[in-house]
Structure prediction request, 342 residues.
Amino acid sequence: MNRLTLTAATALALTAFAGEAAARDQIRIVGSSTVFPFTTAAAERFGATSGQKTPVVESTGTGGGFKLFCGGVGESHPDFTNASRAVKKSELESCAANGVDAVTEIRIGFDGIVVANAKEGAAIDVTPKELWLALAKQVPGEDGKLVANPNKTWNEVADHLPARKIEVLGPPPTSGTRDAFVELVMETGCEEFEAVEAIEDKGQRGAVCKTIREDGAWIDAGENDNLIVQKLKANPDAYGVFGYSFLEQNLDTLQGSKIEGVEPTFENIADGQYPVSRSLYVYAKNAHVGVIPGMKEFIAEYTSEAAMGEDGYLADKGLIPLPEGEREEVRQEAASLKPVQK
Prediction:
């Protein structure tokens, strides 16, 4: 199908969609499990104060959310998707191929990625280098050559760590949290090894840095961060990887590990001391605005000071607010439905 034909087909779909507006009068949102609690809170506030139906919010994971969101235009496709990382160029290309040719990016704030465990377990202070040694599929052996990761217990990684089995529950490859953990922790830790830096092939070097072991030390625990929390409570020797907001909601039973000596607290993440933090996003499908009722009003609610400001209700859920100037910029770009460019 050439571009002219695709444009005509998209226009026809939009015309048909506009005629079917009565088929769905409720906003539908998919995506990141990390952003899910924040969007749910905004949706509930919107439903309680706007006179419109409360949006339906589903936790599908960041990658799964983009797949659904980019599937097409029309009442059977979502209006928004949550994301714990920025949209990829390939995902925007997938959107465009399916007629979703204008998407607005709304940066709502940021949070930290934590390594946490039950309070009955051993508190640890680790570096990205040590986490990479614990979780990478291949690591340098005694002769400097790469070998299958032989480390079975934490104290084999570093003497100051506990003599306990390495067991980490984390998100699957479709998760934005997994993507961010690989980028901010695994790749950062990997850079400290001469044996890895000596690999000339960039693709091979990247694979060594990013590939997580598959021998049981890392356990894909699904997109449901609450499930990871429950499993940690049942197994004090295990650690979990998830967003700071889930730690904050469970501080009565869980403790966060220090990274490079810095505790994962709201204040430390907000002022940049905590080294493992990332931005959080919501993406709007511009073609649905004006067709699905309430989309512009929902965007206004989500980006309001009452929601994403320093004293907003989303901070109570663990969202780290953006600086004031950035919040105003986000607010203006979201209100104007400025399309994201890659």
